[in-house]
Amino acid sequence: MKIEHKIACFFALFGTVYFLESIGGFYMTSAIVYIEKQFKIPSRLSGTMVSASDFAYIPVVVFTSYFGGQGNRARWIGGGCLLIAVADMLISSSSFLFPRVDDHLNSSSIPKALVYEVDR
């Protein structure tokens, strides 16, 4: 296989993985509000969970860099991609495993609340 073909394959795969990882990050950011409402957890705890997932990347990168440099780097990167895929599936599992709670809006109370806010 020519080196140009290997480089093109690497960048195509890297772009795809990076795109999917970005989608997972955006999903986590947008789903955190839904998770707070569904499980009635405070924002402080949900912020701690998001921060913990961000801080978990640092040791994983250090671990992968060290052992990837000593062995087959492509396999270590592939294993890291699979680990990220499993983590993203676990993050999204709350949408599939737990029933959705619909908040019902009492539309008759909206005009009263608006009048109250305007009169204040």
From TrEMBL:
Pfam families attached here?
OATP
KW Disulfide bond (keyword) present: yes
Which InterPro entries does UniProt cross-reference here?
A: MFS_trans_sf (IPR036259), OATP (IPR004156)
Reading the lineage from the top rank, the first entry is Eukaryota
- Transmembrane residues, as ranges? 7-28, 48-69, 76-98
Where does it sit, as one GO cellular component term?
basolateral plasma membrane
Keywords carried by this UniProt record: Disulfide bond, Membrane, Transmembrane, Transmembrane helix
Q: Does the keyword Cytoplasm apply?
A: no
**What's one GO BP annotation on this UniProt entry?**
sodium-independent organic anion transport
Q: One GO molecular function term?
A: sodium-independent organic anion transmembrane transporter activity
Task: Tell me which stretches of the chain form a coiled coil.
Answer: none
- The name under which this protein is listed is MFS domain-containing protein
Taxonomic lineage: Eukaryota, Metazoa, Ecdysozoa, Nematoda, Chromadorea
